[in-house]
Amino acid sequence: MATTTITPETAAEDPKAAPASVRRRTVRTIKVYWPVATATLTACAEGDLDALRADESFASLLRVLETSPELGDFGVYGDVFEVAIGAEGFTVRPGARPALGSIGGRFLSSTLAVTTHVDAAVDDDALTRVLARLADAHPWEVPVIELSAPLDLVHRA
User: Global pTM?
Assistant: First the structure.
């Protein structure tokens, strides 16, 4: 985990203020769109986040996060991820074997956008294994999983 410490100079308007030190860590984000029951989405929107643990589909994602130490490693915090509530729309084309919907139909799915981070120094083979675990656990025939280019996370020093 490579980090860089940055200590900006004290602002000219307040020479007695202590400098704010931050560290940067280079990571890649992994964002996966995960279908959940409509009741789970509704419960989350109402603030009942325990509904995530109870959702059968989401539980399989939680198992991947909890058993992949490369994911969401923030030093003294592990398995870190963020969840955004949403919907996923799609049209089922010929040749598909949809878990939801039928050929030719347009559908909307209750979906959570789940973002986690992996250290940019993780080698390609290990990263591929993590992505394969996510894809294998995903209930859709064609999961939507985004992998970012390396970017910096900022935290207190």
Answer: 0.82
